[in-house]
Amino acid sequence: MKVAPSLLSGNFLRLEQDIDMVNRSQASYLHLDVMDGVFVPNISFGFPVMQAVASRSEKPLDVHLMIVEPQKWVSQVRDLGAEIMNVHQEACLHLHRTVQAIHDAGMKAGVTLCPATPVATLVDIIGDVDLVLIMSVNPGFGGQPFIPHSVKKVEELRRLIDATGSKALIEVDGGVNVATGAQLAAAGADILVAGNSVFSAADPSGAIAALAAL
């Protein structure tokens, strides 16, 4: 299993140490949650902070934009050196155009679904995306409880990917720990985003290793 620790749950007074821990760990990505206080009821961090993070991170960046009009920020995310740019289906009026712009910028395109957004909304785009991120909590805050229906949603997405021949990976974010991660792995997930279960652990690197072993 690929693991993408979410820096949103890190200690903002010692981000350098937290990034170094991720660098040494079995993580596949470093996940950055960008919030604007409009699309979601919270504000996280912007590009100056992410530029500093990018300069320290040895892991590929998975940038998750929980913002309105994410298409306006493709070039800035590219300039971070990000491997993946994740945008919300709900925030993109012209999703296909945004996915094309992300690809044209040399990044992998991810599309994110909020808990109440059906998998079926991806039928016409699934062949064009590199990744689908299923939110297993409502976006905006870390530390929320896992929504159990998310497991069935991952199963449905796996069936859609298999039926269409899409190469998209399935990522899940929200309430992920070893117990919920095992359910998601069995359902067909490829990448687990973990925040509190990693950064609040007595042994964060060990917590990442436990998820990677699923």
Explain what the structure shows:
The chain has 214 residues and is α/β, with parallel strands linked by helices. It is 35% helix and 19% strand. It contains 8 helices and 8 strands. The protein has an 8-stranded parallel beta sheet. Strand 3, helix 3 (74-79) and strand 4 form a beta-alpha-beta unit. The mean pLDDT is 97.
Can you describe this structure in just a few lines?
The chain is an alpha/beta fold.
Strand order in space, largest sheet: 1-8-7-6-5-4-3-2
Structural class of the secondary structure composition?
alpha/beta
Tell me how many strands there are.
Answer: 8
Report the principal-axis shape.
globular
Number of helices: 8
**Assembly context of the chains:** single chain
Low-confidence stretches: none
Helical coverage, percent range: 25-40%
CA distance, first residue to last residue:
6 Å
Q: How large, in whole angstroms, is the Cα Rg?
A: 16 Å
Q: Write the H/E string, N to C.
A: EHEHEHEHEEHEHEHH
Question: Please, what is the average pLDDT?
Answer: 97
Strand content: 15-25%
Strand count, sense and barrel status of the largest sheet are: 8 strands, parallel
